[in-house]
Design a protein that fits this description.
It contains eleven helices and nine strands. The protein is an alpha/beta fold and 261 residues long. It is globular and about 65 Å long.
Length: 261
């Protein structure tokens, strides 16, 4: 599949890299990029061989949020048109959030607005320690509504209240404390840090990762007592899979299971 605003490549390990490719616009998202990111997520989700997905940005900036031209076009639309554009963005983020593969974010330069939304739908995020972040919508009289469910779920309300509506910039250290970033590192160490996260996933059974990710999303916000049956059924189902049988047998035999890379 050929895209105009993103690049998708897959290496010999079946690790895909999706790169935002509008460097002249600081990878700001427009209607086409949102559509292409949606299509890429749909295709990656159905690839049985795929093991891990990396989201990265080309050029100096990870993602500057919404493209100004796209935002101006929305301003000229009627209410139905505005709802359509907002729904398309929410749908794209939802597809990435539900992707049945582990998603690793490689973040550098800056991430504003919708860029924070992309970070929020990654499972593990590594960023340069000099990266700048902001939710600047309220400066324009807008609100970070479409990305809000994803960002607040990752930040938690206490951290979100500090940055969600005052447009103040914040740094990588803040997001590490909030748990939205897994780690921050020097620019020269970014690729090695991302690779370390990828290698960890490649040591694990891909089917188990997919089911564990789905369970994690299902259990979030559910009372522990209410989740008891759900988690017990999920574990019993997993015990009966070929992956679990192979993994347990390999452990006791001191052998390497087929998925280890």
């Amino acid at each position: 599949m050929t895209y105009e605003t993103i690049r998708v490549s897959t290496d010999a390990r079946n690790v895909a890299t999706v790169t935002l490719a509008r460097p002249d616009k600081h990878n700001a998202m427009n209607a086409m990029m949102i559509a292409e990111l949606t299509q890429a997520a749909e295709e990656l989700a159905t690839d049985p061989a795929l093991r891990v997905v990396i989201i990265a940005g080309q050029g100096k900036t990870f993602c500057a949020g919404g493209d100004l031209g796209w935002m101006r076009a929305q301003a000229d639309k009627d209410r139905a048109g505005k709802l359509t554009e907002a729904t398309n963005l929410a749908r794209m983020l939802g597809h990435w959030n539900a992707l049945p593969k582990p998603v690793v974010g490689r973040v550098h330069g800056a991430a504003y607005g919708g860029g924070l939304g992309l970070i929020a739908v990654c499972d593990v995020v590594v960023a340069e320690d000099e990266t700048r972040f902001a939710l600047t919508e309220t400066r324009l009289g807008l609100i970070p509504a479409t990305i809000g469910p994803f960002v607040i779920r990752r930040l938690g309300e206490a951290f979100a209240r500090q940055v969600f509506f005052n447009s103040k910039p914040f740094d990588a250290a803040f997001l590490v404390r909030a748990g939205m970033l897994s780690r921050a590192c020097r620019p020269d160490d970014l690729d090695a840090a991302v690779e370390e996260e990828v290698l960890a996933f490649l040591q694990c059974a891909p089917g188990a990762i997919s089911e564990a990710k789905r369970l994690c999303r299902s259990l979030a916000g559910v009372d522990a007592s209410d989740a008891a049956d759900m988690s017990a059924i999920a574990l019993a189902d997993r015990w009966e899979t070929n992956e679990a049988q192979e993994g347990i047998a390999a452990f006791f035999a001191k052998e390497t299971p087929s998925w280890r890379r």
